Structures are given as C-alpha cells and as structure tokens.
Amino acid sequence: MDTSIGTIIELTVFAILALVSIVFSLFVVTARDVVRAAIGLVVTMFIVAALYILLNAQFLGVVQILIYVGAIGVLILFAVMLTKKEFGSDAE
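Given the sequence above, the corresponding structure tokens read:
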C-alpha cells in the first residue's frame, strides 16, 4: 500500500472536519438559545459542504452552500429574530 503525504494530509483534514461537524451538531441539539442553535446549524452545513468538496463532489458542496446555508439558514435566523418574546412578564 503506497501512502503518500497528500493522502495522509487529506485523511487528517477529513478527520478534523468530521470531528468539528460532530461537535457543532451536538451543540445544535443541546443549545438552550435558539439563535445560537441556528448559527451552529449554519456552521454544520458549511462543514458538510467542505466534506463534500473534500470527497470530490464539488457540485453537491456548492448546492449545499447555496440552498441549505443560503436559504434555509437565513430563513431560520429571520424566523427566530422576527418572533416576539415578551420581556418582564409574569410568565418567568
């Protein structure tokens, strides 16, 4: 088995991206603030796009960024920012 330095670097970058993706995915699930969870989701989607590009699927990476990060991520952030939250009410 001939392993070159490029293969080792590629596997290392893949492992780092996979671990960071898992960490941010867990952050999305465990975050108490919805805005921080949405930002974590956008970061996770960027990392998944980077994984697609690393796996030589450039079209899927670009589509991931355009559709999921661009449209769905911004939609979630706007929906969260536009919802009313009452401060100082008796509901606390």
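The chain has a mean pLDDT of 86. Try to locate this feature in the token string yourself.
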